[in-house]
């Protein structure tokens, strides 16, 4: 069809083709739009690795970038363990997993409840995993779970810690600290990878542990208001600080794994990779852009073509993470690579490699977890006692009302 039209145009002149000048005028804009869309879409992963039967843990695997990573790995027949906020018995989650199994023709997709907003939940899962005898196979841990809260939704977790700090950093620290023996115990020939999802905001982070401590004080003030209490003051830039801390910990964790002397004297087989997926159109980004308000949502919808153009789709955002999980060359070496747009790049902040910073952060995190867990344990015991007391009171009331009823019942009166 286009060939006869072009031939006609060449013979009779362009004006002979209806709307030809309009098309010529519009075409460069379409080409520019397509070029921009392609550019903002970022690099595509072309690396592959045999994933069948490999066991991969994914946090944040139910939405956004993490969901695409989980789907791609499941499609390659990996055994995917989704660490989710909800219990596996949750109706929506069960349906989601059923769909994923059907779509990817992979029955080996499971969910385990790991609420990153609860240090207790993280501990419960991780200790259950490492207590398994014989040790369970583990080929990769992909950490995509997290939050980027708009300023209006300042909050704290049930542990009384800033939610961005805990979900983006502290819970990952907690999870990997407990899972560390499960990673170290893998056979030396196994290529095990831990992939951390970071964000370029780390570059501007003002890393000061006092920032997080200040937040603790604020949490303490609002502790009596319950877990949903809102923080009156959120430390400035805590999201960036949490990502900076995550990257610093990633390097420290690699050093911790490398320092382990295996009983078979073979070199360590677990490598850490840090990935910046780039700006992506996910539920998390949408919430952040809209500021969590209806007006924000309206503005977002009105400007949607712009976001469609400049932000990656979740599937495009997943590419660098898939590259980190599957590129063959990362099966060897010391680990601690930083990946962006499916290639290795230098980290913009050299202080994430500073051993002193790593040590201080590690000690601080351990202390923060210990304190929060102690408080959490006391709260749980008190809540349990309260519940028991209430149940006992209820039973006593029921028994006494049953007795009174029997005494005044029609049958008892008739019997008199
Ligand atoms: N999107 C971007 O532009 C961008 C840019 C740079 C870096 N990143 C990083 O990439 C990662 C994924 O980002 P995303 O935009 O895909 O995030 P997202 O759409 O907000 O998804 C976050 C995931 O974390 C899970 N999650 C939230 N709270 C949780 C909790 N308490 N316990 C367990 N899981 C919880 C969510 O589960 P539910 O589905 O149950 O809510 C969801 O699956 C994040 O680490 C983010 O910082 C993203």
TrEMBL record:
<dbReference type="InterPro" id="IPR036291">
    <property type="entry name" value="NAD(P)-bd_dom_sf"/>
</dbReference>
<feature type="compositionally biased region" description="Basic and acidic residues">
    <location>
        <begin position="371"/>
        <end position="397"/>
    </location>
</feature>
<keyword id="KW-1133">Transmembrane helix</keyword>
<keyword id="KW-0521">NADP</keyword>
<feature type="compositionally biased region" description="Polar residues">
    <location>
        <begin position="400"/>
        <end position="409"/>
    </location>
</feature>
<comment type="similarity">
    <text>Belongs to the short-chain dehydrogenases/reductases (SDR) family.</text>
</comment>
<dbReference type="GO" id="GO:0016491">
    <property type="term" value="F:oxidoreductase activity"/>
</dbReference>
<keyword id="KW-0560">Oxidoreductase</keyword>
<keyword id="KW-0812">Transmembrane</keyword>
<keyword id="KW-0472">Membrane</keyword>
<dbReference type="Pfam" id="PF00106">
    <property type="entry name" value="adh_short"/>
</dbReference>
<dbReference type="InterPro" id="IPR002347">
    <property type="entry name" value="SDR_fam"/>
</dbReference>
<feature type="transmembrane region" description="Helical">
    <location>
        <begin position="288"/>
        <end position="310"/>
    </location>
</feature>
<protein>
    <recommendedName>
        <fullName>Ketoreductase (KR) domain-containing protein</fullName>
    </recommendedName>
</protein>
<feature type="region of interest" description="Disordered">
    <location>
        <begin position="371"/>
        <end position="416"/>
    </location>
</feature>
């Amino acid at each position: 069809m286009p060939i006869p039209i072009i031939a006609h145009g060449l013979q009779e002149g362009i004006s002979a083709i209806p709307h030809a000048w309009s098309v010529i005028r519009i075409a460069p804009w379409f080409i520019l739009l397509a070029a921009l869309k392609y550019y903002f879409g970022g690099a595509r992963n072309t690396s592959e690795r045999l994933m069948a039967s490999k066991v991969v843990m994914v946090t944040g695997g139910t939405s956004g970038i993490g969901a695409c990573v989980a789907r791609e790995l499941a499609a390659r027949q990996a055994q995917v363990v989704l660490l989710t906020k909800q219990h596996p018995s949750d109706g929506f989650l069960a349906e989601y997993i059923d769909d994923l199994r059907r779509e990817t023709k992979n029955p080996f997709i499971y969910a385990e409840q790991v609420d990153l907003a609860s240090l207790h939940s993280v501990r419960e899962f991780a200790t259950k995993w490492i207590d398994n005898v014989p040790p369970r196979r583990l080929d990769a841990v992909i950490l995509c779970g997290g939050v980027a809260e708009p300023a209006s939704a300042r909050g704290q977790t049930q542990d009384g810690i800033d939610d961005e700090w805990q979900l983006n950093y502290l819970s990952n620290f907690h999870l990997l600290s407990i899972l560390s023996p499960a990673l170290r115990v893998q056979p030396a020939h196994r290529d095990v990878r831990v992939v951390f999802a970071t964000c370029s905001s780390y570059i501007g982070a003002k890393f000061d542990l006092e920032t997080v401590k200040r937040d603790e004080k604020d949490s303490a003030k609002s502790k009596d208001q319950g877990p949903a209490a809102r923080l009156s003051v959120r430390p400035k830039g805590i999201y960036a600080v949490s990502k900076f801390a995550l990257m610093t910990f990633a390097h420290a964790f690699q050093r911790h794994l490398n320092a382990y002397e295996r009983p078979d004297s073979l070199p360590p087989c677990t490598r850490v990779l840090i990935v910046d997926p780039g700006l992506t159109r996910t539920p998390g980004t949408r919430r952040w852009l809209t500021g969590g308000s209806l007006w924000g949502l309206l503005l977002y919808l009105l400007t949607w073509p712009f976001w469609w153009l400049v932000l990656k789709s979740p599937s495009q955002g997943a590419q660098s993470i898939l590259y980190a999980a599957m590129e063959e060359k990362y099966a060897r070496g010391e680990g601690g690579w930083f990946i962006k747009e499916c290639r290795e790049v230098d980290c913009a902040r050299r202080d994430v490699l500073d051993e002193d910073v790593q040590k201080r952060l590690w000690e601080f995190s351990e202390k923060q977890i210990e304190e929060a867990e102690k408080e959490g344990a006391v709260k749980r015991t008190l809540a349990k006692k309260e519940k028991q007391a209430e149940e006992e009171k209820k039973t006593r009331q029921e028994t006494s009302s049953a007795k009174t009823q029997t005494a005044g019942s029609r049958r008892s009166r008739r019997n008199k």
